[in-house]
TrEMBL record:
<feature type="domain" description="HTH araC/xylS-type">
    <location>
        <begin position="233"/>
        <end position="333"/>
    </location>
</feature>
<dbReference type="Pfam" id="PF12625">
    <property type="entry name" value="Arabinose_bd"/>
</dbReference>
<dbReference type="InterPro" id="IPR018060">
    <property type="entry name" value="HTH_AraC"/>
</dbReference>
<keyword id="KW-0804">Transcription</keyword>
<dbReference type="InterPro" id="IPR009057">
    <property type="entry name" value="Homeodomain-like_sf"/>
</dbReference>
<dbReference type="InterPro" id="IPR020449">
    <property type="entry name" value="Tscrpt_reg_AraC-type_HTH"/>
</dbReference>
<dbReference type="GO" id="GO:0005829">
    <property type="term" value="C:cytosol"/>
</dbReference>
<keyword id="KW-0238">DNA-binding</keyword>
<dbReference type="Pfam" id="PF12833">
    <property type="entry name" value="HTH_18"/>
</dbReference>
<dbReference type="InterPro" id="IPR027304">
    <property type="entry name" value="Trigger_fact/SurA_dom_sf"/>
</dbReference>
<dbReference type="GO" id="GO:0003700">
    <property type="term" value="F:DNA-binding transcription factor activity"/>
</dbReference>
<dbReference type="InterPro" id="IPR032687">
    <property type="entry name" value="AraC-type_N"/>
</dbReference>
<protein>
    <submittedName>
        <fullName>AraC family transcriptional regulator</fullName>
    </submittedName>
</protein>
<dbReference type="GO" id="GO:0000976">
    <property type="term" value="F:transcription cis-regulatory region binding"/>
</dbReference>
<keyword id="KW-0805">Transcription regulation</keyword>
Length: 345
């Protein structure tokens, strides 16, 4: 059973308490014993934490839980994510998400920048005094980091994270799990950074998966691993084509040299992680192809070339093996299911 420090249970309800909510009722409805909050060394079930967050959301009709100047009505985050699934890459996801909240909110701000090979995602609030323990600031940063990982199919490795507050003594070990990277405190901005090469990661989730994730939110953000520095993910990131370029894959010998190891060592390490170079290449082709097919405005011939197939017939055969459908049939099925709220069948 995954657990979380009692600190987060205590802080979760502080915004609600300031707004006059019955915190005892919130705890009881979520199945959280009030005695948990009194024990500074205790840990609680992460599922109970997720239920408590939901109780605060719905009792206040505020996804920002009373920690910001204005309410964020329940459903706002779900509405935002509907604009993310059609995106082709993580870069487009972060830009679209930031633009959405910056357009509809005046008390929160998201800022995405590139600097010397690093992608930086910044979070700020107009009234930080409403979040004195910076609980929601941390929560909001965690959500964006793990959403980026979820929508691209795996944890997003961070290079560093900076915070406007001092090092949290009470829950430092928990904090290291939330942000598994170099941590910088007492900084002018709260943000996290990762290698810009990950911006090319394709979106691999569909609307059905999105609906399932939202039904369980925020549980996924609390239980999803914060990091995965495995070789398979690093190989995948290195192979992803830049936007607008045709997918090309080096030989395993060339790839091994890039990672400063022999081809035999590369094969062995990938095998230990349950995959192979061929499987990674095939998965990249599949993910990019599906995303481009679902975007709906690209010709099948163009998609075939973009993922390394010189012949449309060969691409169609491969696509049928991946999905059970031809590209055109898959596109038609998807848009029918999207308008009816169902799944591909």
């Amino acid at each position: 059973m995954a657990t979380i420090s009692s600190y987060y249970f205590r802080e979760c309800i502080q915004g609600a308490a300031r707004k006059g909510q019955d915190t005892g009722r919130l705890l009881t409805t979520a199945g959280v014993s009030p005695s948990l909050l009194d024990d500074f060394n205790a840990r609680g079930d992460v599922r109970a934490m997720a239920r408590l967050v939901q109780q605060v959301w719905y009792s206040m009709d505020d996804e920002f839980m009373g920690f910001t100047e204005h309410r964020a009505k329940v459903g706002l985050f779900g509405l935002m994510t509907r604009f993310l699934v059609p995106c082709e890459s993580l870069e487009q996801v972060l830009k679209a998400g930031a633009r959405f909240y910056n357009l509809c909110r005046t008390d929160t701000h998201l800022h995405f920048t590139l600097n010397e090979g690093q992608a930086i995602f910044e979070v700020s609030f107009s009234r930080p005094d409403l979040d004195p323990a910076h609980y929601f600031l941390e929560f909001w940063m965690v959500i964006w980091h793990r959403l980026a990982g979820w929508i691209t199919g795996g944890p997003l490795p961070l290079q560093w994270a900076s915070f406007t507050f001092s090092e949290p003594v009470e829950y430092l070990e928990e904090f290291k799990y939330m942000f598994p990277c170099e941590q910088r405190f007492d900084q002018p901005k709260s943000c996290f950074a990762f290698d810009e090469k990950h911006l090319r990661l394709p979106v691999v989730r569909n609307r059905a998966e999105l609906k399932a994730m939202l039904r369980e939110a925020p549980l996924m953000f609390l239980t999803m691993p914060a990091s995965d520095l495995g070789l398979a993910r690093r190989v995948r990131a290195a192979l992803l084509p830049t936007q607008g370029k045709i997918g090309e894959f080096p030989s395993i010998e060339d790839l091994a040299r890039r990672f400063n190891m022999t081809p035999q060592t590369l094969r062995r390490k990938l095998q230990r992680e349950g995959t192979s170079y061929g499987e990674i290449k095939e998965n990249i082709r599949r993910d990019i192809a599906i995303q481009k097919v679902l975007k709906g405005n690209a010709r099948i011939e163009e998609i075939a070339l973009a993922v390394g197939y010189a012949e449309t017939r060969s691409f169609t055969r491969a696509f049928r093996q991946w999905t059970g459908y031809s590209p055109l049939h898959y596109r038609q099925k998807y848009f029918r299911s999207a308008t009816s709220g169902g799944r591909l069948s």
